[in-house]
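Hey, I'm writing a tutorial for new members on how sequence and structure tokens pair up, and I'd like a real worked example in the thread rather than a made-up one. If someone can provide the structure for the chain below, I'll link this post from the tutorial.
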Amino acid sequence: MDSKKHSVKNKFLFTLNLLLVVGLLTACTSVQSTMVVPPIVSPTQSTLEADSTTPYPSRPVYAPGTLVDYAAQDGDNLAAIASHFNTTVEEILEANPLLPKTITTLQAGFQLKIPIYYETLWGSQFQIIPDALFVNGPAQTGFDAVAFVNSQPGWLKNYTVFADEKMRTGGQLIELVALNFSISPRVLLALAEYQTGALSEPVLADNLKTYPLGYEEQFHKGFYLQLVWAASLLNNGYYGWRNGSLDEINRTDGTLEIPDPWQNAATVAFQHYFSQKLSLNQYNQAIRENGFIRTYTSLFGDPWLNVQPHFPGNLQQPELVLPFAVGKTWAYTGGPHESWWGSGEPYGALDFAPATSGGGCSPTDEFAVALADGLIVRTEPAIAVLDLDKDGNERTGWVIYYLHLGLDDLVSQGKLVKTGDTIGHPSCEGGSATGTHVHVARKFNGEWIIADGAIPFNMEGWIAKNGSRPYLGTLTRKGNVITASDSASGKSAITAGLK
């Protein structure tokens, strides 16, 4: 295709943006053995039972390869859509000849024809909240979780806990987990209210004090660690659907469902979360019109009004360098793995390590460097966050996240840096580490960007690929393959700045 025709097709593709029509949410609430009732009108128990056991509306049994209509959703990519509809990228491209083969993300609302291959046990078609309101992105700018919690009568405003090296109030705790996992603080507050009455009940019920969110595990006692578990589980569901790896919901009664192919990532995140600890009836209640969304709406209004997608069509990563100085040789020690300290998805981070004379966690004179020009928008023990659009807001635009930096010579918050400027020394500080290294990950508009996905991690042309499990994997450039290893020799060695 010549460049003029390609330009015309691209222009046509990205100007097609249809409005998504969503019904207004109905009003009633639920009574559940593990949930606290929000302070809204309650129906009778018989109504609740009927509502929570009503079967999902069924999809037709499509003949194999039937073309169905699909409006692209915020952040969609072809590989994930193919997984959801049990088809292939090649078949989608054949059915949609105007789509460039190299497209990354799809413009929200763009109309596609998708070859569908029917699977049994498709789940709920009801969508809970938009993806843009699930992540800690632009829509959360200006929201003060501390002030909001303190304005409510619930027990959370009087709650204090030692978390991340200091005492924190309930609102500060919400902000901490929202920042660390990049999940909307509104989502976390609505979840805390739905399950524990954190904003409406003056006292936390005795049966909820040890495991308030229902995860009965000895290393996750108390509200803070329960919230960390919840945030990690929500991210597992969100990013598993985003990258196409999550293909079923396993419920507590041993049954399973396949997420509806038309679902969005945020809804699947809640389905995945609520399926872990609730009975089937409680699960069906939580994910539908009168469940969690009823609480969210009572606190923050209808999430589907004036939705602003947080992903553009065909999003591209800016040019990045390796996280160490030109001419230096470091080891590629960790392939795609957890972006934050949670467990499981998203696998957005990579690890690099300099050679150290003592091995293990020995100190080093080597520096991690800026992957691009930007503003250091946040520094904390072991952490630096580089804001590439320099607007001072970590929730907007491209952001580079550094972990495991030592306190000595750590870059100062508010500093403007150029590509290759020093950020800090690699170390073992911050979380679990067995050797001196630096961990780098990317976010765009609050969403962690998966290292091996539609927009792969690309530094100086080295492209990240997943391995058979987290931390394994490769970097590939021009036919050269670097394999992740815990040694700075052999196949793991990589030199910055080589053309």
